[in-house]
Amino acid sequence: MKKSVKPESPHKKHRLPTGPLNFGLIIISDTRHREIQTSVQSTDETASMVENLIKEAGHKLVSIIFIPDEAEDILESVNQLIEKGIQVVVTSGGTGLSPRDITIETLSPLFEKKIPGFGDLFRFESYKEIGTAAMLTRAEAGTYRGAVVFCLPGSPNAVHTAVNKFILPEIEHIISHMKKKEKKEKIPKEEN
After folding, report:
1. Total domains present in the chain
2. What percent of the chain stands above pLDDT 70?
3. Residue 143 falls inside a structural domain
């Protein structure tokens, strides 16, 4: 696996201190879920890699959930993690074009604020690694119920790229923006 690199964001001065953040990982895969359910040796490569990257960055991976490609399971798992106090939810799987790929259809309509730059940058970086096949991913991110949710492809290499090059370098910046209190501007009253 590639060595992790955490580039520093030039926006570091705009961040509020966040301390270690709590992450949750949801692996959305019929195959991985079946392996876990039947106590078969899991072929998952993503969970331990993500855990190591998050730990190296000074954060905590609090929960890892394996679920099938089912809308109800996806939604239930995301809500469960948020209710546990998870600030960053990372999903892996279900972002492609097959009929079973429903992560985006399930989560995107719930996002209070979408982060379109994430998907754009991810596809751009993926293009450099895998060529035009990068257009097939529908990776996306947004805020939901006070947490930020990243929907990533199921490929371990794609997850590594997203977590290492985009999520970890900017997550404190994203959380800082989410924690900012709304500034109320005083609008001068018209005199009659």
Report:
1. 1
2. 85
3. yes
